[in-house]
Specification:
By secondary structure, the protein is an alpha/beta fold. The chain has helices at 21-33, 59-71, 89-94, 105-117, 141-149, 177-188, and strands at residues 37-39, 47-53, 75-80, 97-100, 122-126, 152-159, 164-171. A 7-stranded mixed sheet has the order 1-7-6-2-5-3-4, with helices on both faces. Helix 1 (21-33) crosses helix 2 and helix 4 runs parallel beside helix 5 (141-149).
Length: 201
């Protein structure tokens, strides 16, 4: 089966994971079979916080896992607590997942900070909407995590019409959370998710 162009060559060496050739091949095959690919390159930074949007479908998870396999990135991603149920929680943690307890966000941020301190190079992935449903305002947690981990913020757009995951540019927060969240939301309005009626457009 022909695989897509997505590969670990799009990722700096210090941000690559330890996944073998089979998982990289599998990620490429899945993306290619459904017609998707990752466009652009991960910047050469010590650590990055990737915010991926618009998050509108359960398929986003399949795309994300396939992309992280194909790119072979060293990533920790934040997912809702309900994913990490007994019996399969180990699998999501093996994939790099960190369960989000919305009732205690400070505990989550402390955990992420400690995790980052153990790694020489790391990417943190988060869906800032906090839900697949349409929301009027995104949560500011990603700004706090980026600041406390000294991570650069990188945009990753899910563009369903073109079937591309697009790696954007580094975003420099101004320090004004309301202003920054508004800017980020406006940036992602140019893209359509898999279920566009759930996008914040």
């Amino acid at each position: 089966m022909k695989t897509g162009k997505t590969s670990q060559d799009q990722v700096p060496e210090h941000l690559r994971g330890r996944r073998g050739g089979f998982l990289q091949w599998l990620g490429k095959v899945v993306l290619s079979s459904i017609g998707w690919q990752v466009i652009g390159n991960i910047p050469n930074e010590e650590r990055l916080l990737i915010i991926a949007a618009p998050h509108t479908s359960n398929w986003d998870f399949i795309l994300g896992i396939s992309a992280l396999f194909a790119l072979n990135v060293n990533i920790k991603w934040l997912g809702k607590n309900s994913l990490f149920i007994p019996g399969i929680a180990w699998f999501f943690k093996w994939l790099g997942g960190i369960p989000v307890n919305r009732e205690n966000p400070n505990l989550l941020i402390d955990y992420v900070v400690k995790t980052v301190e153990k790694e020489k190079g790391l990417i943190i992935g988060i869906a800032p909407e906090g839900s697949r449903k349409k929301v009027d305002r995104w949560k500011s947690g990603f700004l706090r995590i980026a600041k406390q981990t000294d991570a650069k913020i990188l945009f990753l757009s899910i563009d369903a019409p073109s079937k591309k995951l697009k790696i954007g540019e580094i975003f420099e927060p101004s320090g004004d959370n309301e202003k920054d969240i508004k800017f980020v939301m406006n940036y992602f309005k140019q893209y359509k998710g898999i279920n566009p009626d759930q996008s914040n457009n």
